[in-house]
Amino acid sequence: MKNIKIAILGLGTVGGGTYQILKENRELIAARCGCTFEVAKVLERDHARLEALGLDPAIAVTDPQLIFDDPEIRIVVEALGGIDFPAGLMLAAMRAGKSVVTPNKAAVAANFDRLRACAAENGVQFRFEASVGGGIPALTAIQEALSANAFTEVMGIVNGTTNYILTKMADEGLAYEEVLKDAQAKGFAEADPTADVEGIDVANKLSILMALCFGTYVPPTEIPREGITKVTMADLEAAKEQGCRIKLIASAKKDTDGSLTYSVKPQLIPASHPLAGVNNEFNAIYVTGNAVGELMFYGKGAGALPTGSAVCGDIIAIAKTL
Ligand code: HSE
Question: What's the pLDDT tens digit per position in 253-298?
């Protein structure tokens, strides 16, 4: 059976979750895709992270060039976080002939065209399913199963941390700071949770969704954005009295003249609306296509294993073409 060597850049929450899935589901993955995966190198300074996962610390490198120069490595998973540095590594990996998989929405959103063009120029694949909606396979569906549709709208709840905070504040009366700490401990939040609570993470994801649904790239910095830091317990209570929930909503709509209207902001959602029932770290992505009509994807939008599930799906999709 073919053994495909991969490298993981960063063994944090998602890098670790990805390895855990490849290891625990090794046999069923082999049976389904006819090959095995071997993590041959990891870019990671913290050897304790390798030991905790049962990986040999000898495969850890601190110079990414050792990965790019290794002809046996076919797929590189970038799970470091950040923007410019990981984007540079992804470009270098693709120029070295490796396909790249990443959950890094900030790097993808800031370099969308560049990364995709680099993959095309170098005859490799660039996949980023885990960058939006964690474990929800919405991006692949938009690009494949739904690709016959002209999309008119995409909206949703695409940040697990803020949805977790709003849910716990509204339903359990817990304080913002306390719930944020809990979300960090569960591995939902970004290294700097400002990106979550100020809506920056959601803007990155909306930028990616718009590029795929409408073929129009809008840099995340140009998306009007408001986070949840100004939402108070009193606001949540008042919403409840009106039969509503407050949710951090990403939305983009194509108007009849072809122009796009988009924003990231907390919105009142009537309790009867399906998005009102999307709670805790769950995400939901609604798309409207001219053939399929309205469609909602729902699932866990953050966390090691849900996000690792999407990364593994991309790895397997690439392996099937090698
Ligand atoms: N911090 C992100 C979230 C992680 O809470 O949704 C997944 O992108």
Answer: 999 999 999 999 999 999 999 999 999 999 999 999 999 999 999 9
Given the residues 205, 247, 254, 300, select the one marked as catalytic: 205
Atom of ligand 1 nearest to the CA of 183: 5
Catalytic residue list contains 205: yes
Q: What is the residue type of 46?
A: D
Pocket test for ligand 1, best of 108, 131, 161, 285 (most atoms within 8 A of CB): 161
Beta 126-127 vs 60-61: how paired, if at all? unpaired
Query: pTM (2 decimals)?
Result: 0.96
What separation in Å is there between the alpha carbon of 161 and the centre of ligand 1? 6
Contacts of 10 (CB under 8 A, 6+ apart): 42, 43, 44, 78, 79, 80, 81
Cα(284)–Cα(159) distance, rounded to whole angstroms? 9
